[in-house]
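During the no-cost extension, the postdoctoral fellow (Dr. R.K.) reprocessed legacy sequence entries with the updated structure-token encoder. One reprocessed record is reproduced below for audit purposes.
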Amino acid sequence: MNKILYPRKEDWAKVLERPVNKGEDLEKVCRAVFDEVARDGDEALRKYTWYFDRVKLEGFEVTEEEFEQAEREVQADLKEAIRLAKENIERFHEAQVSGVSEYVNENGFRCWQEARAIDRVGLYVPGGSAPLFSTVLMLAVPARIAGCREVVVCTPPGRDGRVNPVILWTARFCGVKRVYKVGGIQAIAALTLGTGTIARVDKIFGPGNRFVTAAKQMAGRYGVAIDMPAGPSELMIVADGTACARFVAADLLSQAEHGPDSQVVLVTCVEGLVEEVEKELQKQLEVLPRKAIAEAALKCSKYVVLGDREECVEMANLYAPEHLMLCVEDYMAWVPKIRNTGSVFLGNYSTESAGDYASGTNHTLPTNGYARAYSGVGVDSFMKKVSFQEIRPEGLAYLGKTIEIMADNENLTAHGNAVRIRVETL
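Re-encoded structure tokens follow.
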């Protein structure tokens, strides 16, 4: 990790630069895949599944036999852990369900808003070296609570042509009936455009690498919504002298091991803490099975020492991290000052790993600074709000002149006429 001491504020943006993302190259690749999927459908999926995942498949939908095999293969203790995590995730997300909001005007009209579930959603679940079955929980649970009519999952197959059994078991446990063995750009293209096997969805959810993120952003050009740009994982830890160096190092590594393009940042106004954390980090790194991946991520990661705590808060809001840990003594006093982040973890024992798995909050969060404008996934992500209004004759008489004046001044005469011809009948 790079150590940066007391940078000037005018240099902060450069200090906080994310790993380079070659947007133009990604767009070119995504466009080629999308064009081919639009033209050739499932045949294009077969081609790109071989090209990117090195596996040849005839069919993409997971069979009932494969679900049954997954049921036998997943160990009982893991099933129980998933059950407990699901319970917490359900309770947290059920609390997000809102009722009808209504405005009633005594002069004869009322307006209200009701939530409606998105009909058909596609969930992308990363596979590969880290099959994220926890992402199934984070996406399928709120989709069910919202009431989506159809939920499908796309996830990359392994070299043996199978989907990781824990992903399959978790999907079935969450009520998902259709899982497709398709990953990467081609999966997003299939969910966006539709193929012979996979039908087009209304909205796509889920994290992924920079290729998946670029593909999701391209989906919007075809009229399919996405949850947010959720790319490579990132974590910022703000720590003071009460922080435990062992804990901080462990959390930095927990995110660095996600992938070589992940980024972790430690911000502190206690310079001596950096050396302690570095020693612990190196010690813990040596025994990690994913050491090489974590090391690659740490090359683009940073220790930043600032002058005081106010600067630490200011830098956190500027960076807008996916995950923000506040390993500080009076962390509740910091809460009102935090504006830009996906999810916050308070105190030395609120490890980010809890949010990734089992505490109840959602781990599908905005990255790359998008937390300045996006929220993480929740029940609302799977719904849209529909507004209604009921205007009685006396209500239109009350509003009529206001509407006519405004419409006429926008040179939209027909708008005014739609009111005038009604008022004349009263």
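The CA atoms of residues 190 and 198 lie 6 Å apart. The chain has a mean pLDDT of 95. The remaining legacy entries will be reprocessed before the final report is submitted.
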